[in-house]
Amino acid sequence: MQPKSDWDSKIQALGELLVDVSHYIALLVIGFVVIWAAGSEFIGIIQNGKAALKDILMLFIYLELLAMIGIYFKTHRLPVQFLIYIAITALSRHLVVDVQAVSDTFHLWLLITITVSIFILSLAVFLLTWTASLYGRPDDNLPSVDHAKPKSDPKTPEKLTE
Question: pLDDT value at position 133?
Fold first, then answer.
C-alpha cells in the first residue's frame, strides 16, 4: 500500500489537470463565441454599407474580450483591468447610443450616473495600476517555470550581468 501523501499528491495533480482543462475548454468556447459575434457584427456593418459609432464601439468590446482571453492563455492570469476597460467601453457605448432614447426628465440623472460610473471605474484602473507598481501583484513572488529556457548545470556558475 502506498503512503497517503503519494495518493494525495496524485489526486491533487489530477484535480489541477481537470481544472486547467476545463478552463482551456471554456476559454476556447468563449473565444469562438466572441469571434462569431464580432464576425456577425462586422457582416452587419458591411450589409448596412456604413459603420456607426455604436458599431465601432461594439467591435472594441469584442477586441477587448479577445485580448483578455489571449492574456489568460499567455500568463494564466485574468487581469481585472481588462474587465474594467470592457465596462468603461460598454458604458461609453451606452452613453453615446442608448441615452438619446430616454425621456428628458430622466435623461439628466442617467447622464450623471453613467458619467460618475465611468469616472469611478477609471479611478479603479488607476488605483490598481498604481498599487501594482508600488507593491507588485500577488503572484509576482511565485516561482515561474520557463519551459523554453534550458536548466543550467548546478556545477557551472551563472554569469553575472553588470
Answer: 86
146: left (phi over 0), alpha (psi -120 to 50) or beta: beta
Model-level pTM greater than 0.85?
no
Q: Collect all residues with Cβ–Cβ distance below 8 Å to 54 and sequence separation of at least 6.
A: 93, 96, 97
Asked whether the beta carbons of 90 and 65 are under 8 A apart, the reply is no
How many angstroms separate the CA atoms of 116 and 108, rounded? Answer: 12
Locus of grid cell 509576482: 140
With CA atoms as reference, report the closest residue to 70 among 121, 34, 46.
34
Q: Write the pLDDT tens digit of every residue in 102-118.
A: 666 667 788 889 999 99
Q: Which among 65, 58, 53, 30 has a CA at the least distance from the CA of 42?
A: 58
Distance CA 92, CA 96 (A): 6
